[in-house]
Amino acid sequence: GAGVSQSPRYKVAKRGQDVALRCDPISGHVSLFWYQQALGQGPEFLTYFQNEAQLDKSGLPSDRFFAERPEGSVSTLKIQRTQQEDSAVYLCASSPWTANTEAFFGQGTRLTVV
Amino acid sequence: EDKVVQSPLSLVVHEGDTVTLNCSYEVTNFRSLLWYKQEKKAPTFLFMLTSSGIEKKSGRLSSILDKKELFSILNITATQTGDSAVYLCAVEAYGGATNKLIFGTGTLLAVQP
């Protein structure tokens, strides 16, 4: 596609519910990043994929967070047993290189846990 | 701990004004500094700076980096209402499997007609 596409755009989950957030990167982009942006804050790194390999997951806040990119294109960020502090915008970015330089961001998914 | 600090947190100006946004950083393994404009949700890339003292310019926007004093500024001249957005500064740091972006909290700019 023309840009990075994320779905859903908005998600409301009850506390304890599992959610799955999808990212379609720009076709052919090697690198894919997930960020979490809380209200009034800058994005914070969660995890990084180079093709299908998850090379860095140091930013995942707990073992309730899990990400995958099985075929090196679409990625899914899963959050199990959601809690209120998980409420944030989740941004996905992709880059044709193995670095952040000029990575293209998607519109994000706003998750609200009630 | 690596950190990026932006100021001011928010700013209200009138169309035609010139604004200067500030970004200071303390980051080990510095590689580059990037500026993004965030409208609604998706940050869009503005500039990448790697060398001190070399101004990058795009239309009414310009930016410069001082690696000795560890800061950058983003200037917007003749502001327009379409410039209203959050401006994010991020530092790219070498490390591990990839270079991470460390973001500041952003400056919210509101340009009034």
How does this model look, in words?
The complex is a heterodimer of chains A (114) and B (113). Chain A has no helices and eleven strands. Chain A is an all-beta fold. In chain A, the strands form two sheets. In chain A, strands 2, 4, 5, 6, 9, 10 and 11 form a seven-stranded mixed sheet that branches. A four-stranded antiparallel sheet of chain A has the order 1-3-8-7, with no helix packed on it. Chain A is globular. Chain B is mainly beta. In chain B, strands 2, 4, 5, 9, 10 and 11 form a six-stranded mixed sheet that branches. Chain B is built from no helices and eleven strands. In chain B, strand 9 and strand 10 form a beta hairpin. In chain B, 36% of the residues are buried. The interface between A and B is medium-sized, with 30 and 25 residues.
Q: Counting H and I runs of at least 4 residues, what is the number of helices of chain A? A: 0
Oligomer: heterodimer
SS-based class of chain B:
mainly beta
The largest interface is:
A-B, 30 and 25 residues
How many β-strands of chain A, per DSSP? 11
The percent range for strand residues of chain B is over 45%
Low-confidence stretches of chain B: none
Rg over alpha carbons of chain A: 13 Å
Approximate helicity band of chain A: under 10%
